[in-house]
Write a structure and sequence with these properties.
This protein has 18 helices and 22 strands. It is α/β, with parallel strands linked by helices.
């Protein structure tokens, strides 16, 4: 009999980088992933191919699956010999009902492990510039929930005990009952002037913080329709926010940015945008596939040592070439005397990742410039040159090199095709939430975005990685609001930051 195991994994408060290393490791080996409403769906990309993905989200008043059914599901899958990950927002044992799930597994004699997560009780205030403990303010931290079992005949929250406790109080859940809770705390003796902060969607680019005092925070929240999920902090430490509000001061904070690049490539760009405070999300419009004529491509790779130059115009071409190369050979020296040219720092860096040097790299990151760079190095007449590029790439490079007398083999190393599925949920999210900015890193990303015919959110802007992509966007009727001067990911991010240096409006574009 195969023995299964269930990992109760804390997904953290929302920032993808706050998932623990062990949590990510568990996702990578899971046969089944059961995730909830507060666990960032971006984590699902760490699941292995073929894993069964089940949503068991619960919001106030709405349950995809009742808790008893979730418990039964975890037991069923574990008893079937599966490796199960129950992915829960925050920490599974801190008001996450992970304790109930663990009891159900234990009662059924199923193996389980708990993988603690970063709790929003600590991380939420921290990202709002509020330390929950500070030696000049408090020596005690109280954490309580404002959301109770609705079947209980009366509240089990001891307002008197919470009001009497010194130091900071953090409430998880309960924003919908905020007026009732604030009234109960004041009636129990808590100072009505105690500073209070509410932090919504903490640690993400959607974070919103509302500050007030105990006597007026409920009215302030009602006035702006402040909705869950949110954390509430009560105590003098809230006033430190004026000095310590680091996250919301980031240059792209609150900007909702859709990245249309293929999933295999989007990670670096999204990470850079998120590090600057943006709510960046994947909305891939293209997918990278192997060479359309594998035999022709592999034959060219097998005889790559016969070329004087191998020219790469993208990191995808580099990866496709060396994947094939190391399936054929086991020693990089089999590349022979072939020299390497690369367009752009990202492409050059990918070549170096295979422990090979780039002999020529033009100052400008467009294919035409590689010709000038090669001519500075040597005459191209009668040189055998292999171009390992995308199928359908612009023919200007091959045509001009041939005109100059080079012997050129322009072999498609891969192809980009429209992304037909919404594997990351980005298209759904774009329809529902809109975006402030849509980013294009190639002509194909723009063309396939246009083909989706998505409704344009009011006020949406568009960013381009360079002039070739910009010309395609203009042909499609898409405005070029941002164009990178340096045609690579760092240059694109820099241009986006510069674009948003103008006065900031917190309201994101909406459909």
């Amino acid at each position: 009999m195969t023995h299964g195991i269930c990992y109760l994994v804390g997904a953290g408060p929302g920032d993808p980088l706050l998932l623990t290393l062990k949590g990510r490791q568990c996702l990578g080996i899971a046969d089944v992933v059961v995730y909830d409403y507060l666990s960032n769906p971006a984590f699902l990309k760490y699941a292995k191919e073929g894993a069964e993905i089940l949503y068991a989200g619960k919001t106030a008043g709405t349950h995809t699956l009742p808790q008893q059914e979730i418990n039964a599901l975890l037991v069923e899958k574990t008893k079937a010999g599966k490796v199960v990950v129950r992915l829960k927002g925050g920490d599974p044992f801190l008001f996450g009902r992970g304790g109930e799930e663990a009891v159900a597994l234990a009662d059924a004699r199923c193996a389980f492990e708990v993988v603690p997560g970063v709790s929003s009780a600590i991380a939420g205030p921290a990202y709002a510039g509020i330390p929950v403990t500070h030696r000049d303010h408090n020596t005690v931290l109280t954490i309580f929930t404002g959301h109770e079992d609705p079947s209980k005949p009366e509240t089990s929250v001891d307002y008197s005990a919470i009001a009497r406790a010194p130091g900071t109080k953090v409430m998880l859940m309960g924003i919908k009952r905020l007026e009732h809770i604030a009234t109960g705390l004041m009636a129990a003796g808590m100072d009505r002037e105690v500073p209070v902060a509410l932090i919504r969607w903490a640690t993400t680019g959607r974070q919103e913080t509302l500050a007030g005092r105990l006597h007026d925070i409920a009215a302030k929240a009602a006035a702006v329709d402040f909705k869950p999920p949110a954390v509430a902090v009560f105590g003098s430490v809230v006033d430190l926010r004026d000095k310590l509000n680091w996250f919301e001061a980031l240059p792209l904070f609150g900007r909702r940015i859709a990245v249309t690049r293929a999933r295999q490539q989007s990670g670096d760009l999204i990470s850079r945008l998120r590090a600057l405070g943006a709510e960046a999300f994947e909305m891939p419009t293209i997918r990278i596939e192997p060479a359309p004529d594998k035999r022709e491509f592999y034959e060219a790779v097998a005889y790559s040592h016969a070329y004087e130059w191998i020219v790469f115009t993208s990191a995808n071409g580099v990866d496709a070439f060396f994947k094939a190369f190391f399936e054929i050979y086991h020693d990089a020296r089999d590349l022979g005397a072939a020299r390497i040219a690369a367009v752009g720092p990202e492409t050059a860096a990918r070549v170096r990742s295979y422990h090979l040097q780039v002999d020529v790299q033009p100052e400008k990151f467009v294919a035409e410039e590689i010709i000038k760079a090669l001519q500075k190095e040597t005459s191209v007449e009668n040189l055998k040159i292999l171009l390992a590029r995308a199928e359908g790439a612009r023919d200007v490079l091959a045509t001009e090199l041939t005109r100059l007398g080079a012997i050129v083999d322009d072999i498609p190393a891969y192809r980009t095709v429209p992304e037909t599925g919404d594997v990351s949920g980005g298209i759904r999210r774009f329809r529902e939430e809109g975006a402030d900015l849509v980013v294009f890193t190639s002509s194909s990303t723009a063309e396939n975005f246009h083909a989706l015919k998505l409704p344009a959110p009011e006020g949406v802007c568009y960013a381009s990685i360079g002039p070739v992509t910009s010309r395609t966007m203009q042909k499609l009727g898409l405005a070029v609001d941002v164009e990178a001067r340096s045609h690579d990911v760092p240059g694109l991010v820099s241009a986006i930051v510069k674009f948003y240096m103008k006065p900031f409006s917190k309201k994101a574009a909406t459909p």
